[in-house]
Fold:
Amino acid sequence: MENKIIQSLGIPFTALISIIFLLMISSFPIGAYVVFNSEINDNITYEYPMGNLESILSEIGIGSSMKFELGDGFILLWSIYLILFTIAILGPKKHFIQVLQSIISHGKYEIKDNYMFPIIKWFSILVLASTIIIFAQEFFGISTEQLGTSNDLIQFFDLTLAPLVEEFLFRGILIGIPIFLLYSNRFSFQFFIKSLWRPWQNLEIVEKRKGLFVIVIVGIVFGASHIIFGEGWSAGKFAQASIGGIIIGWVYFRYGFAPAIIIHWATNYFIFSYGYLVADLNQFTIENAFTHPFVSMIEILLIVTGIISMIILVTNYIMEKRCIIEKE
Structure:
């Protein structure tokens, strides 16, 4: 019965995954257009000076005479995400298309084969969970909104930067190091770095509860940080960001650092690149852009994919439990 459910969902699921994948690829040039060619910037352009970066580089003795602009920083970040995205498409063992073919043919895939499929699957689950939380909170009169925003171009740059900074801190350090200390039975610098990059594949993780405890605690801290450290969010952001932090923390624990970054990139850069494109083409605010039919269609696409992903996860869990019981 469970196998039939998964196989019946295989073709529509891979179709949805493929569409989201193509939308993600398209967001790379769209984001570049937003920064360098759109009119969302008001009085600030991609030539806006990045004095903070110049000061940091000067302090460590690098490029003290160089002048950095917002466009330079964006291209650097854009290139890093493109490299990580390419890594996710091609590996670690099979490329993305091979995995899709396996799902259509056999209704299953191996998590160790490719990064991109679990990235899109868990990203859609994150969007589904966030949507449920927002609707539930709004029912009780709790809003989830950013109270104050800077210039739209600077905001988009900050959204592009955040996944690298926050994943390094919250996943790489606050989850990666405790996970290493909990599960490692040897130490070398090379093994330490490999374990931070892909914890599940390099550490001997037999019992997951300790790791899950760390993930939940750090997820709650991640949610609280959006309120405490003046990021301009209302209190309603706490629950949404906490659930997002827990989901991304699990992805880091199970699949590695690159997938965690790409999921965070998708929640920020991917979504907002389309939002700002719609805002620019229609000459209205980013808030109005997220009510536009095109952006709403992307959201519905992600929610439907998230629902199917949850059905497949629950079905696979039931099948695994049944196999364990039968063996006993």
About this structure: The first helix runs from residue 2 to 36. Residues 136 and 142 are 9 Å apart (CA to CA).
